[in-house]
Amino acid sequence: MNMFDIRKLERPTGRVNLASSIINLAWSPHNSQIFAATDENSTIRLVKTSADYSVADTFVLHVGHRSPVVDIQWNPVFPWVLASVSDDSLDESKGGGGTMQVWRVNEFVEKDPDVEVEWAAGLAAQLGSRSRTNSIASSASNDGEE
Questions:
Q1: Four-point Cα dihedral 31, 74, 23, 4, nearest 10
Q2: CA–CA separation, 20 vs 61, rounded Å?
Q3: What is the pLDDT, as a whole number, of residue 141?
């Protein structure tokens, strides 16, 4: 798949190698270098591009759907939380209907310094006052005490 800068459409900015045809693509609202791409093989790929968008690498594969993923959205508040929808009615042998999944990428998969602060703030808001960072800090300070 070729990537184009909308301001310079005369030539591709970069290229992403994906296994099959893309159905949907959504850029992360938290990091302008990361996007999610869904394909007809029921796979969701999270791709990170270089700063100049010339190189792109898949760093997460989500294969939890049984049918082609027809829509994907990033949560605008919590980084690394996505909702994806597959249309299971395309394959009658799988029971029909559709599947919606709300899922979160493990925070250890991608530790981007620009997103880490937003991640900690979002997690703290979601879980209350004890975020993972606070838990680690408090357990580390208690390790030396008897």
A1: -20
A2: 13
A3: 45
Domains and their CATH numbers in the chain: 2-109 (2.130.10.10)
Residues 6+ apart with CB under 8 A from 114: 31
Contacts of residue 5, Cβ cutoff 8 Å, sequence gap at least 6: 13, 53
The whole-number average pLDDT for the span 116-121 is: 58
Tokens standing for residue 48: 């990170």
Q: Determine the Cα–Cα distance for residues 127 and 125; give it in Å rounded to an integer.
A: 6
> Is the pLDDT reported for residue 42 higher than 60?
yes
Fill in the amino acid letter for 14: G
Which strands sit side by side in the sheet containing 34-39, from one edge to the other? 22-27, 34-39, 44-49, 56-62
Q: Please state, as a whole number, how many other Cβ atoms lie within 10 Å of the Cβ of residue 126.
A: 12
Beta bridge partners, 2, equal: 15
Whole-model pTM above 0.85?
Answer: no
> How many residues can be counted in the chain?
146
User: Distance between CA 85 and CA 88 in Å, rounded?
Assistant: 9
Considering only CA atoms, which of 46, 38, 48 is closest in space to residue 85? 38
